[in-house]
Design the sequence.
């Protein structure tokens, strides 16, 4: 697994501990690959941090919530998913604005990443709908239903980001791997 794919995988796995193919926009500008890589790592880092923070907020509320406030716990879960949708929208917009990396298969790599984020947004939207439908009348059912939402998010994000393995094949010249090895913003994502 190359560094770019590993960065995305690590950030995504860490992003949700609790619980459509996008093409380049018409007229997207071509930018130097190094410039694009910095923007990508910054955007993706901000995105994963937002998802992690929303998840931690829900975990904190869940650990202090009691059976008498299932409505509050449900609202926190729905709010976390709404924040995740908003963060994903922002990431997609920012990456679209970043342009297309001027490198071999840069357009395809950019489209692959945008598609993964769009798919992640769909996962969060589906989970938000499921969370809104959770009943708060019975604590045991509530726990079962929220666990299902959590499982759906985890498996959905695995599926959403599965296509990123294509990046390894598309980066035939190793351009993006080399750039991610040198880039401070990318290094920060790896911890």
Sequence:
């Amino acid at each position: 697994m190359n560094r770019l794919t590993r960065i995305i995988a690590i950030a995504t796995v860490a992003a949700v501990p609790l619980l459509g193919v996008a093409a380049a926009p018409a007229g997207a500008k071509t930018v130097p690959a190094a410039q694009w890589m910095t923007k990508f790592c910054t955007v993706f880092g901000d995105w994963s941090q937002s998802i992690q923070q929303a998840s931690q907020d829900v975990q904190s509320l869940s650990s202090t919530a009691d059976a008498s406030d299932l409505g509050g716990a449900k609202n926190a879960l729905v709010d976390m998913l709404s924040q995740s949708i908003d963060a994903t929208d922002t990431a997609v917009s920012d990456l679209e604005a970043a342009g297309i990396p001027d490198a071999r298969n840069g357009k395809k790599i950019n489209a692959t990443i945008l598609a993964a984020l769009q798919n992640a947004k769909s996962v969060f939207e589906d989970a938000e709908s499921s969370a809104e439908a959770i009943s708060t009348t019975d604590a045991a059912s509530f726990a079962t239903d929220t666990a299902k939402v959590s499982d759906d998010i985890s498996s959905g994000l695995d599926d959403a980001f599965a296509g990123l393995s294509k990046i390894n094949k598309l980066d035939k010249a190793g351009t993006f791997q080399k750039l991610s090895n040198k880039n401070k913003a990318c290094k920060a994502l790896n911890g």
Observations:
- The chain has one domain: 3-14+31-189.
